[in-house]
Amino acid sequence: MNLYSNKQKWKIALMLFALVMVGASLFVSNNIVSKMGERERERVEQWADAIKKKLELVRLTDRTFIQLRDKERKEMALWIDATKELSKETPLDQIPDFTFPLKIIKDNKDIPVILLDQDKNISGYINLPIDTSTFRKDHPSLSVKEITTLFEDSLRILAKDWITDNPSFTIEVYEGMFMTYVYDDSKEIVRLEQERDSLINSFNQELIDNQGMVPVLLVDANTNRVLGSNLPNEKVDSLNLGKTINELKLQNEPLVIDFKNGTKNILYFDDSEELKQLQYFPYIIFFIIGLFVFIGYLIFSTFRKAEQNQVWAGMAKETAHQLGTPLSSLMAWIQLLESQNVDPMIPLEMQKDVDRLEKVTDRFSKIGSGAKLEESDIAITVKSVLDYLRPRISNKVSISFEAIEPVIALHNAPLMEWVIENICKNAVDAMENEGELVVTVHRTPEWAHIDIKDNGKGIHPKQLKTIFQPGFSTKKRGWGLGLSLVKRIVTEYHKGKVFVLESQQDVGTTFRISVPL
User: Fold this and answer.
1) Which member of 126, 169, 339, 493 has the lowest number of beta carbons within 10 Å of its beta carbon?
2) Which of 276, 293, 316 is at the close of a domain?
3) Which three-class secondary structure state does DSSP give residue 73?
4) Does 253 share its domain with 387?
5) Is residue 474 part of a domain?
6) Three-class DSSP category at 305
7) Total domains present in the chain
8) Coil, strand, or helix at residue 216?
9) Do 381 and 475 belong to one domain?
10) What percentage of the chain's residues is helix, strand, coil (to nearest 5)?
């Protein structure tokens, strides 16, 4: 009683310890996660203010670029007007004054211009970063004509690119003759754009390099264009951007950055990796506690099973011991009857039953001790059991036995006979004492198989997993120990297997016993 009382106390103590651990871990982890979440939001808000200031600077620079380009276009138009003025025809009796147009043309020292005729041939150029000397250095083996051709081809390609960024000017120089002026941004604008791009790139690189920053995504509220992010490229491409935004919305409420001029940006952000990892802390604790409880349960179960085995073996040995005394007495009575003038069949049948009781006693005495396995024909063992059962079951049950060849296997004949007898008796009960019982012994390279087939009522599929458990029985007065004992003898003593090979309701059941060869 004390042993079971102590077990119960240990179970209660383990449960209380688990509950305390769970409660403490939840309380601590929730507090830490909450504080870290607040700090991360403060960091994101501070970062959003920095974004606002930087983007305001970028927009100011963009507006400056627009004004500069507009100014350069006006300068370009004035330059072309001056060029047209120089190309006008003047009467011979007048001396034209080209001072002003020449000054305008001379003042253009910054805007690169390429002049194309109506056949797209190069007619002139100024303020270009390249000339024929550049190509001569790269291709010293080419002739002057080839260098010139290569240079003009490059200028045509360059002019085509410039037209996409800045509208060209086409004028009629002479009647029926048109010239096209193509220009690009001045060196000053290019320099300022490079500085702006450098500012934006440094901002984006800061996002990428700052591993301590939470995952963020900054988009334009009107166009959903990505302005900055430290997320992987595949998450912010055109295909996955919408999905990424929806995922970030679920994590935290996005921040709106309003520039008070009709422009708004939205900052989406996620929890940091450290915070996410910390959120798994309670689950880790649950797992550890669960593992602790599981190990404790296994220990208690092992103790309980060991006790059950001891009780089982003790009861079996005590039963064998108690049967010994009446068996000795019965043997003496049989000898007395044989010396009297009684029907010889009476002591003969009594002797058979005494022999059977001796076998049962021997079986019970072997429970709990190592059974001795002998190498012999298992088919003979099975046949002897069937020969014993034939006159003791209903004559409406036919028993057929099939064994093509001897099957030599290590087994304990008395225990194996007990197994066969238990399954056969269950089969007869399932057929309600009327039907056909077929027992087959055959072998494979590794196993000796004993198949016991009946045409009874079958086993329900839901019961197939529980029929070998102690206490399971379909009989009203059954103890549910027969098949449990069968499984114990086959698996523990013979290292074999016993299972339902096939079963259909109202058709029959086939049990298979497999013993290793």
Assistant:
1) 339
2) 276
3) helix
4) no
5) yes
6) helix
7) 3
8) strand
9) yes
10) 55, 20, 25
**Together in a domain, 266 and 401:** no
* Positive/negative CA dihedral, 299, 305, 467, 451: positive
User: Does residue 73 form part of some domain?
Assistant: no
Which residues does residue 268 pair with via DSSP β-bridges, in sequence order? 217
Distance separating alpha carbons of residues 314 and 244, to the nearest angstrom: 69
- Shared domain for 425 and 506, answered yes or no, is yes
Nearest-angstrom CA–CA distance, 494 and 316: 19
**CB of 108 closer than 8 Å to CB of 75:** yes
- Both structure tokens of 201: 């790139």
CA separation for the pair 215, 269 (Å, rounded): 6
Residue 64 in domain: no
Examine the fold and report which residue of 226, 250, 276 is the final residue of a domain before the chain moves on: 276
Cα-Cα end-to-end distance for the chain = 45
244 and 168 part of one domain: no
| Residue 152 and residue 122 in contact, taking contact as beta carbons nearer than 8 Å | yes
Asked if the model's pLDDT at residue 209 lies above 60, the reply is: no
Q: Which of 90-104, 199-213, 230-244, 312-326 has the lowest mean pLDDT?
A: 90-104
Supply 75's token pair.
Answer: 């300068």
User: Which CATH number do you get for residue 403?
Assistant: 3.30.565.10
The model's pLDDT over 263-319, given as tens digits with 9 standing for 90+, comes to 677 878 777 777 777 777 767 777 887 787 788 778 877 776 666 666 666 666 666
The range of the structural domain enclosing residue 429 comes to 370-516
Position 149, amino acid: T
Least Cα distance to 363 among 471, 493, 514 occurs for 493
pLDDT tens track for 436-483? 999 999 999 899 999 999 998 888 888 887 788 765 666 655 555 678
Rounded CA separation 123/432 (Å): 115
394 φ/ψ angles, rounded to the nearest 5 degrees: -60, 140
- Tell how many helices (H) and how many strands (E) occur in the chain: 12, 15
Does some domain include residue 326?
A: no
Closest CA to 272 of 204, 211, 229: 211
Q: What are the tokens at 399?
A: 């028993």
Residue where the block lists tokens 């009467």: 91
Beta bridge partners of 441: 403, 450
| Residues 221, 134 share a domain | no
- Could you give the count of Cα atoms lying within 13 Å of 112 in the half-sphere of its Cβ? 18
**Digit-coded pLDDT (tens) for 158-175:** 888 888 877 887 777 667
Instruction: Indicate if the pLDDT at residue 92 is higher than 50.
Output: no
Tell me which amino acid residue 211 is: Q
Q: What is the model's pTM?
A: 0.42
* Token pair for 297: 């349960």
Closest to 412 measured CA to CA, from 451, 367, 456, 442: 367
Q: Are residues 394 and 488 in the same domain?
A: yes
Q: How big is the chain, counted in residues? A: 517
Q: How confident is the model at residue 383 (pLDDT cuts 50, 70, 90)?
A: very high
User: Contact at 8 Å (CB) between 252 and 240?
Assistant: no
Task: Determine contact, residues 465/429, Cβ cutoff 8 Å.
Answer: no
Q: How confident is the model at residue 382 (pLDDT cuts 50, 70, 90)?
A: very high
- For residue 439, the cross-strand partners are 401, 452
